[in-house]
Design goal:
The protein is mostly helical and 117 residues long. It has one domain. The chain has 6 helices and 4 strands. A hairpin with a 2-residue loop joins β1 and β2. The relative contact order is 0.11.
Length: 117
């Protein structure tokens, strides 16, 4: 079997998967990322002190007080995965509300750039 035939076989198998299944898996995967990120910010029903530290000293949100930003981001990361996973219209708000710490580059100095997630 040649590479072309193998690729064509793979494509025909992939085309049999309904779009709704692919979309559901994609939505649930993104919702899971936000949920897990929110879970790293809490202990039980309380926001961890480390979360406040990150918002005060690492993220340095310019328009909001750091404690308020920590509460808002943690709440958003626990609220928006539900609508996102269930395809409710509020889901796009979740991306804007919590994108601050997902794949954003932070610099320690001019030569050291790291990815925080």
């Amino acid at each position: 079997m040649s590479l072309i035939q193998l690729l064509e076989t793979g494509r025909s198998l992939a085309e049999r998967i309904p779009y709704s299944v692919v979309a559901l898996v994609a939505r649930l995967t993104v919702a899971d990322v936000f949920w897990r990120s929110g879970q790293t910010k809490v202990e039980g029903f309380h926001i961890r002190e480390a979360t406040f530290f990150l918002f005060r000293d690492e993220y340095k949100v310019p328009l909001l007080p750091p404690d308020l930003a920590a509460y808002l981001a943690t709440t958003a990361e626990h609220v928006f995965p539900g609508p996102l996973g269930h395809r409710i219209g509020l889901a796009p708000l979740g991306f804007g509300a919590v994108r601050h710490d997902h794949g954003v580059l932070f610099t320690d100095n001019e030569t050291n750039i790291r990815l925080r997630s």
